[in-house]
Amino acid sequence: MTAIILDCDTGIDDSMAIVHGAGNGARFVACTVTHGNVPVHVGARNTVTVLDLLGLSDVPVHAGAARPMAQPLLTAEWVHGQDGLGDAGIQASDREIAGDLAAAEIVRLARLHPGELTVVAVGPLTNIGLALLLEPRLPELVRGIVLMGGAVGVPGNASELGEANVWHDPEAAQLVIDAPWDVLLVGLETTMRTVLPDEALQRIATSPDPRAQFVWRILHHYLGVYEPMFGRRTCVLHDPLAMALALEPELATYRLLRAGVELRGERSRGQVVADLRGFDAPPTDPREPGVVRVVDVLDVSTFHERFLRAMGA
C-alpha cells in the first residue's frame, strides 16, 4: 500500500479522490485541510465525514491554512454546494478534528517517516508552502509530491488562465514548484480528458454499494455545474486523477518542463507558465527547482475502471 498524506479542501471531487484512494491501495497516514472549495473548517468537517463513511475513522484530520498567503480568501460553493458536499443532506460526522496546525503536522510526519510518504495535494498549496518554510528539507523527507493544479497551455477554470488550486494561492504554488523535489503537476490539460461516459455514471447510479450511493448523492450538484460545458450531465475527475497517478503512475507517461507561476499579471495571476517552445534541451532532473513533471499520454479507460472499482460500481 502507498502511504499518503492527503492535503485537501474537501468538496465533491476531493471526496471522490478519497474514495478512489481507499479502494485502490492508499494508506492514509493523515489528511490535512486548507481553504479552497469551502472555508477550512467546512473542509475539515467534510474530510472527517467522508473518511468515517469509508470506515477510516482512524485517519487523523488536521485543519490548516484559513486563507492564502497574499490575497483575500475566495471559495467555490457554487461548484460544490454550500456544504461542500453538493447540498445532498449528507450527515456530518461528529468526530473531533485532530489538530489545527496542518503544516506542522506535515513536517512532523515527514520527519517521523523519512522517505516513506507521498504527498497528494488537491487543494490550494498554502499548507504545503508553509511546511516548506518550516522545514526546507521537506523534499528530502518525502517520496514525492503529486499536485492537482495548473493549466499548462490550456484555459483556466478560476480565471481565463488560472486553474483554481494554483489561482487561490499563487505564492504558495511558486514555493512548491521552486522546491527541489519531483513535482507531478496534474493540471487541466490532463484532467479535462477524464469526462465520465454515460455508462460509467449509470454504473454508479445503479450500484448497491454504499460507497457508490454516497458518490451518486454528492454528484448531482456537480453534474449540473458541468452540464452547460459539455451539453449533458457529466463531470471530469480532477482530484481523483491526482490520487490515481500517485498510486499507479504507470497509468500515464510523462515529460519534464521548466515552469513557474505568474504572480503579477492583472489578468494572468495564478497561471502556470511552462516553457513549451522546444528551443532548449528539455530538463532531465525532475528534482531541479522550477521543473515539473506533466502527463503526456493518459490511459483514461483504465483510470475510469479503477475509479469505478473503488466504489464497487
TrEMBL record:
Q: Which domain of life is it from?
A: Bacteria
Q: Which SUPFAM superfamilies match?
A: Nucleoside hydrolase (SSF53590)
Would the keyword DNA-binding turn up in this protein's UniProt record? no
UniProt KW keywords = Glycosidase, Hydrolase
Q: Which GO terms describe its molecular function?
A: hydrolase activity
InterPro entries noted in UniProt: Inosine/uridine_hydrolase_dom, IUNH, Ribo_hydro-like
Pfam families, per database record: IU_nuc_hydro
Annotated Inosine/uridine-preferring nucleoside hydrolase domain ranges read 4-304
For this protein, the record's PANTHER family field holds: INOSINE-URIDINE PREFERRING NUCLEOSIDE HYDROLASE, URIDINE NUCLEOSIDASE
Protein name in UniProt: Nucleoside hydrolase
